[in-house]
Amino acid sequence: MLKEFTYNVPKLDKGYANQTLYVNLSDNTIEIKPVNEKMKETFTGGKGFDLWLMWNALPKDRIVKWDDPENEICIATGPLGGVTQYPGAGKSIVTSISPMTGIPIDSNVGGYVGPNLKFSGFDAMEIQGKASKEIYIVIDGDHGKVEIHDASDLPNTAYEITRILTDKYTEMEGKDMAVAAAGPGSEHAWMGCLNFSWWDMRRNLPRYKQAGRGGIGTVFRNKKLKAIVVKFAKITLDLENPADFDGIKEAGRGHSGGILKLDPLQNRMRAIGTGHLPSIMDEFDLFPTRNFRAGSDPEAVNLFGDVWDKTYTNNGKGWDGCWRPCAINCSHCIEGFVPKTGAFKGEKVVVDGPEYETIAGCGSNIGVFDPMWVAETNFYCDAYGIDTISFGTTMGFVMELFEGGYIDEKATGGHTLKWGAAEEVLAVLHEIADGKGFGGEHFGKGVHYLKGYFGDNFGVDCDLMQDIGMEHKGLEYSEYVTKESLAQQGGYGLTLKGPQHDEAWLIFLDQVHNYMPTFEDKAEALHYFPNWRTWFGLNGLCKLPWNDVVPADNAQSGEPAKVPGHVAFYAQFFQAMTGRPTKPEDLIHMSEKVYNFQRIFNIRQGKGLRINDSFIPYRSAGPVTDWEYESRAERYDEQLKEIGVDISGMNTTEKNQKLREYREEQYRLLTDAAYKRRGWTRNGVPTKEKIKKLGLDWIPEVVDIVKKYEGTEPPKDTLPATDEAWE
Q1: Residue 529 lies in a domain
Q2: How high is the pLDDT of residue 514?
Q3: Residue 313 DSSP SS3
């Protein structure tokens, strides 16, 4: 043990511990900081607390880089996190400056780390500094202790780390334990993820959910931190001391009861979870195949839900939940899986998932349609601490360049990376874990890095790579084909953290249901849904109970996209916990404060203006190649005719160029409309009036940044040809 700190575990009050934990690994400082009413009123909890702690702890006189010792990792739940009477209330929110984007990244993750941390007496935890040797942290809420330990005797993969620490510290056969750990791949890649454990009581082993996006696992291992253990024996509602016990129970019963009754008739989340999505995405041409070139493929049937229904080992019983009382129970797994490659070759292991994003990213998007190879890639990404979305999207980019003859084995370190080359894919993944070869030295840094690497060293055309390299702001796209949904193009391009679906998933509402035909409709959606989805991250909640099982009368609700019946439950839930009178519209106001604060944080980091929202990869907006156009020629020809283009006598290249000019202009017009609705300037800066209305003007530096940037003009090439949407 390198440091021991003892404390009195406080009683929670209306969902809050009213204090946070600070650990500095450079000198082993451990401190407790108070949470005041102003902090709760402005930032609510969860991601809001994370951002506020980082804002105050990071140096203000310079841009902070991800590997600076001053960078922090913050972990929080929220006032509703850990409630045992409500579905999806077991989430943690992890925040840091991202290696991939250089701005705050947040990841919403299941498992018991956040709830255990809160009941141990801390609304959030911030980790700063960098250790001189590998360490792990223990937070023991049962005995009021925080410890820092030498980790030199721990193994290297996340699975082994978690099982050893669980055995070492549990007093209840694992049920009182949660571990956050990254694997060796996080040391060598910028796309490192964190694994958060939960205890599977039926299989008697720790299982995983991932804080995947943006490289937080990379920051974790860069600080020489191997794991965090958080221990708390028994979580109950009375420990939260809510304002209204009965109100919470009533809302929880209503929401959970609807899920249990309707899930078998809707998406069958309890049986196959997000594994049900591939068939739906393929049907609507949204399932990414071969680097997002198309949205469907005849071989995709091998990755449909009926395949996973037979592959997952829960026998359709629906008892795989990453939070004990969650009615959705969607965390399925494959038991007795035997890898064909790598360090676990020939051993029986448990694969957590795969979830939809992995099925698409590490399956169809790289031309791999064998579910067992997808499962093996999933397993090793978890073991090594690698984000499956960034890994799969990066691999799709590299494979397209390889198949097109733009790069060869010299560029890929000897790997023949053709579509479907599953064993070669895994060989690259193993290299990331070892820190060697193409995988360990180059691939693991993602698409944005590889654009420069291939351009500088192998002469690959930079314009081509910009068009087909599916990243924006440095973060790889999650797995939906957005060519036919302008709203979703904005939902990815206008995000705060990069193209991640958890901020504004609008593709079905826009493309399939046509709920938002006008710019005004799309702008309203790009205001409401990012703020609504932010609210879950402020409170320690999962989004799936909101809209993956909906009330039977939702279609008649007037606003079915918002699922107002469930929104009413959440407002009741928040009021019952905190005692604050709360209507559904109040939830959006809570989130708007944090959403705008994060935008200003991005500006402070040098990347929060219109230029940073512009120039999305064109493949996310339309067909790049003639092959793509011709594969959907009837669709695209008709669209050109609708906008008044005479296509007679035009070849495919000419038609494709006309379509591109139109679609790029549409994105610029959408940006204008969305900024105006959000109360931002045309350069993407929240106005003085906006921050005053939101009650952020008590923070002097926020006011100073807005004053500095509010009058700035965006570059001309980011603006549309007309001002119609802005005016």
Answers
A1: yes
A2: 83
A3: coil
Q: Are residues 221 and 309 in the same domain?
A: no
Helices and strands in the chain: count of H runs, count of E runs: 29, 17
The two beta strands, 177-181 and 194-200, are: antiparallel
DSSP-derived 3-state class of residue 607: coil
Q: Are 94 and 141 in contact (CB under 8 A)?
A: no
* 32: Cβ contacts below 8 Å, ≥ 6 apart: 7, 19, 20, 21, 22, 122
How far apart, in whole angstroms, are the C-alpha atoms of residue 428 and residue 436? 9
Any idea what the CATH number is for the domain that residue 379 is in? 1.10.569.10
> Is 421 found in the same domain as 516?
no
Residue 250 within any structural domain of the chain: no
Q: Which residues contact 294 (CB under 8 A, 6 or more apart)?
A: 285, 481, 628, 631
With H, G, I as helix, E, B as strand and everything else as coil, classify residue 230. strand
Q: What is the largest CA-CA distance in the chain?
A: 80
Q: How far is CA 708 from the centre of its chain?
A: 31
Distance in angstroms (rounded) separating the CA atoms of residues 195 and 342: 20
Q: Which run of H or E residues covers position 207?
A: strand 205-211
Shared domain for 493 and 435, answered yes or no, is no
Domain extent at residue 441:
267-476
* Cis check: omega of the bond before 545, within 30 degrees of 0: no
Under-50 pLDDT residues of the chain: none
Pair 215, 345 in one domain: no
Q: What one-letter code names the amino acid at 554?
A: N
Q: How many domains does the chain have?
A: 3
pLDDT at residue number 35:
98
Last residue of a domain, one of 476, 506, 531: 476
Instruction: Encode 147-166 in three state secondary structure.
Output: EEEECCCCCCCHHHHHHHHH
Give φ, ψ of 705 to 5 degrees. -65, -40
Q: Tell me what pLDDT residue 724 has.
A: 84
378 & 429 share domain: yes
| Closest by Cα among 81, 98, 95 to 126 | 95
Do 217 and 320 lie in one domain? The reply is: no
Using the 3D structure, point to which of 450, 476, 502 is the last residue of a domain.
476
Q: 3-state DSSP call for residue 276?
A: helix
- Look at residues 322, 261, 242 and name the one whose alpha carbon lies nearest to residue 573: 242
3-state helix, strand, coil in the chain (%, to 5): 45, 15, 40
State the pLDDT at residue 510. Answer: 86
Please tell me the predicted confidence (pLDDT) of residue 503. 87
Which residues are CB-neighbours of 299 under 8 A, at least 6 positions away? 364, 369
Beta-carbon contacts of 312 under 8 Å, excluding residues fewer than 6 positions away, are 272, 273, 275, 320, 332, 333, 334
| Residue 241 belongs to some domain of the structure | no
CATH assignment of the domain containing 625 = 1.10.599.10
Structure tokens at 296: 């469907």
C-alpha–C-alpha distance, residues 69 and 132, integer Å: 11
Question: For residue 316, what pLDDT is reported?
Answer: 66
| CATH code where residue 12 lies | 3.60.9.10
User: Does 99 share its domain with 190?
Assistant: yes
> Are 90 and 120 in the same domain?
yes
420 in any annotated domain: yes
| CA atoms of 385 and 370, how far apart (whole Å) | 23
Q: Which residues lie below 8 Å from residue 492, measured CB to CB, with a gap of 6+?
A: 472, 477, 482, 499, 500, 501, 504, 616, 620
The Cα–Cα gap between 259 and 269 comes to 9
| The pLDDT value given to residue 513 | 85
Distance of CA 200 to the CA centre of its chain: 23
Token pair of 269, please? 């989340």
